[in-house]
Amino acid sequence: MARYIGPKSRIDRRFGETILGSEKVRARRNFPPGQHGNNRRRKTSEYGVMLAEKQKAKYTYGVLEKQFRNMFEKAARTSGITGEILLQNLESRLDNVVFRMGIAPTRRAARQLVNHRHITVDGKVVGIPSYSVSPGQIVGVRERSKSLEVVQTALAGFNHSKYPWIEWDENTKSGKYLHKPERADIPETIKEQLIVELYSK
Predict the structure, then answer these.
(1) Where are the alpha helices (DSSP H) in the chain?
(2) pTM assigned to the model
């Protein structure tokens, strides 16, 4: 398995912000991980800054290197602002949409729900986390999975109005993916232009 399965706090401390969800640990040890993490470090090079931004995006959305490169090349071939299109494509991944709808507490949990075939798209079970959800499609919880504790806990008190590109139906436990989000609506602090510059070198 090539996906990162190490300590979540290590990634959060590496980038100095909560990426995989361990705010308490990062608050207690607010310096980079490793033997020399608490020592003064050299100034990061321009290339290092761009590389770090790409790595941050990969960890945030749980995408592997080859997948990420393919998504960037697809975005580069599409007319528009490449960096913004890249983020929109990442946001359109099924595991991310499940997370944004509040069906799962984290993207990792959302990916597991999809892998275990608890999620449907337009009424059909889809078990591929990287499936690209298109505007107008309805993502929901499989009927026999609606009683899962992880789903009920995640949905309890979740504010479904904070993402304007999603329309949630509490009765059916499903949401409609209205359109791809505008950059201003995506809450991630990723500097996508640095990623574009990295791949343009």
Answers:
(1) 8-15, 23-28, 46-61, 65-77, 82-91, 94-100, 107-115, 149-155, 192-200
(2) 0.83
CA–CA distance, 92 with 86 (Å, rounded to integer): 10
Q: Give CB contacts under 8 A, 24+ apart, made by 45-51.
A: 47/198, 47/201, 49/194, 50/194, 50/195, 50/197, 50/198, 51/198
Going 108 to 111 to 113 to 115, the CA torsion angle's sign is negative
pLDDT band at 24 (very low <50, low <70, confident <90, very high): very low
For residues 140 and 123, what is the distance between their CA atoms, to the nearest angstrom? 8
Amino acid at 78: T
Strand, helix or coil at 95? helix
User: Over the stretch 114-124, which tens digit does the pLDDT of each residue have?
Assistant: 999 999 999 99
Residue 137 corresponds to which tokens in the numbers above? 């499609």
- Rounded-to-integer distance, Cα 128 and Cα 149, Å: 22
Q: Which of 160, 103, 105, 97 is nearest to 129 (CA)?
A: 97
Q: At residue 154, what is the residue type?
A: A
